């Protein structure tokens, strides 16, 4: 994925992109996230979506620094047995929520959707209080 992303980011099409979607059961490599944040595309990308992508809190802070970013969607994984319960595996930790709550860059967000994560019932309230400029906030997952 890193080489493909790096090649794409050097193309002229990258500066016209407003939205990026990442879907896989993998880790976003440091090299790839740094390339994205420092690319010409970073100035035009308004929306980032991650499904089953793991990244560090530090990478989240870097991604939030993208100047046009106003929408962030982060989904963990979900599956179920034919007759059994649904299983959720989260991709975020409380340290990621701390970044969202404390980052000055997160104040630019207008849409924040987080799903299939394991958070306490107060996570949504914590985010709503810290990010008053949000027009849409959706927090779904296994609540404990």
What is the strand arrangement across the widest sheet? Answer: 1-2-3-6-7
Q: Roughly what is the average pLDDT, rounded to an integer?
A: 84
Counted by DSSP, the helix tally is 5
Secondary-structure-based class equals: alpha/beta
Rg to the nearest angstrom?
15 Å
Please give the largest β-sheet: 5 strands, parallel
**How much of the polypeptide forms β-strand, as a percent range?**
25-35%
The H/E string reads HEHEHEEEHEHE
Instruction: Detail the poorly predicted runs.
Output: none
Task: Label the overall shape.
Answer: globular
Q: How many DSSP-defined strands?
A: 7
Distance between the termini: 34 Å
Share in helix: 25-40%
Molecular structure report:
- With 144 residues, this protein is of the alpha/beta class.
- Helices cover 28% and strands 33% of the residues.
- It has 5 helices and 7 strands, in the order H-E-H-E-H-E-E-E-H-E-H-E.
- Helix 1 packs parallel to helix 2, helix 3 runs parallel beside helix 4 and helix 4 runs parallel beside helix 5.
- The protein is globular, with a radius of gyration of 15 Å.
- The mean pLDDT is 84.
Question: Helix and strand layout, with pairings?
Answer:
Layout lengths: L1 H8 L9 E9 L2 H8 L9 E8 L2 H8 L6 E5 L1 E4 L5 E4 L4 H9 L8 E9 L3 H8 L5 E8 L1
Parallel strand pairs: 1-2, 2-3, 3-6, 6-7
Antiparallel strand pairs: 4-5
Helix pairs in contact: 1-2, 3-4, 4-5
